[in-house]
Amino acid sequence: MSSKIKVLQVIPKLGYGGAETGCYDLAHYLAENNCSSYIVTSGGSLIKFIDKKKVKLIRLPVHSKNPILMLFNFIALTFIILFCNISIIHARSRAPAWSSLLAAKITRRKFVTTFHGTYNFKNKIKKFYNSIMLRSNLIIAGSNFIFSHIKENYSKLLDTKKKFLVIFRGINIDYFDASTVTDMEEDKLLNQWGLDRDKKLVIMPGRLSNWKGQEIFIEAINLVNRDLGYLPFYSVILGSDQGRDVYKKKLVRLVEQHRLTNNLKFINNCKDMAIAYKISDIVVSASTEPEAFGRISVEAQSMKKPIIASNIGGSKETIIDNKTGFLFESGKPQELCKKIIEILQLDESTLKSMGNEGRKNVIKKFNVEKMCFSTYSEYKKLVS
After folding, report:
1. How far apart are CA 251 and CA 246, in angstroms?
2. How far apart are the first and last CA of the chain?
3. Helix (H) or strand (E) holding 307
4. Mind listing the domains of the chain with CATH numbers?
């Protein structure tokens, strides 16, 4: 095997989620650091941004849980590993991990997995299916919360001889940088959303899903309106329903019920989230179930925006409460209401200080360069 490390990452789809952007960022980092970088995926919107001169892209149906397709993927991955002389195969999800494990075993290559979430296990079959992520030479958890979840629920399956560590997800701090967004870009997005600069803006990014807490957010906005006697801001729920039209209709009815139609908007998507954060004054993440990492909390801090997030899961790690943002009791709209009002009443000096501390926090702990460097360092140890 050649001394040059050749890494093959396998991921179901390359969309805009945390796991996907992490895969994308690492692939390019490796290519820029004298490694050969490959991605196997079934598709996704991020594909068009891949630098094909640096990263070799191979399409396979690795999103599928169909046993026949998983067998096909195993055979195809085995061929790719041998033909390209791959050093390490890194699976970022369970379905492709099964095919990847078999291919790694047959070719005697190093196998790496990353836990990007806390996979549920309603029965023994589901738990066995999830256990594939523990059958690698190196197990990476994306946060301390995920690390603790694995140790608590899969302790019997953990092999003490295998390395198991935390590498925090990272974001692109150059992209999520408030200083790079122009006034013209801000005005354009405000016009697209039908908003004026004369009111502050509270946004809640994230796909529309019951556990993401959009109902909590709407109820909290209604309570702010009741407590202050008026709404001194616009609010935006920013995210796609991804086919959950029944839930979307439920949210729309709730907005109408509270007579918030003129002040609360639903925006399906935003191509440039840095601008969305820049035009906002408060960012909210109201998840009622633990976020594995809490990407929105990190992105908001990087943009120097005050973030309010549920006090569960990864957000407890990414936010320094009352310093870089605020935590509130999960599932309690009245508590979220209090935090919104508290931020609205903060002076500019305090808000600026909080923004600066948030940016420092992200640069220190959640920088994509740090994530990539840490992963690359572990790769080198594996093959040394």
Report:
1. 9
2. 12
3. strand 307-310
4. 6-170+367-383 (3.40.50.2000), 178-365 (3.40.50.2000)
Eight-class DSSP state of 191: H
Structure-token pair, residue 174: 């150059």
Angle at 207 between CA 127 and CA 62, to 5 degrees: 50
Give the residue among 107, 79, 77 at the shortest CA–CA distance from 91: 77
Phi and psi at 344, nearest 5°, equal -60, -25
Per DSSP bridges, beta strands 138-141 and 55-59 are unpaired
The total number of residues written for the chain in this structure: 384
The closest alpha carbon to 376, from 27, 58, 109, 105, belongs to 27
Place of tokens 């899961």: 313
The per-residue pLDDT for range 246-268, each reduced to its tens digit, is 999 999 999 999 999 999 999 99
pTM confidence score: 0.87
- Which residues fall within 8 angstroms of residue 311, CB to CB, at 6 or more apart? 321, 327, 328, 329, 330
Distance of CA 96 to the CA centre of its chain: 19
- The strand pairing partners of 284, in sequence order, are 308
- Contact residues for 105 (Cβ-Cβ < 8 A; gap 6+): 111
Helix 214-228 with 333-344: angle, nearest 10 deg? 60
User: How big is the CA angle at 61 (ends 89 and 70), to the nearest 5 degrees?
Assistant: 70
Per the CB < 8 A criterion, the answer to whether 113 and 133 are in contact is yes
Phi-psi region for residue 236, left (φ > 0), alpha (ψ -120 to 50) or beta?
Answer: beta
What average pLDDT score do residues 263-279 get?
94
54's CB contacts (< 8 A; 6+ apart) are 27, 28, 31, 32, 37
Span 44-69, pLDDT tens digits: 989 999 999 999 999 999 999 999 99
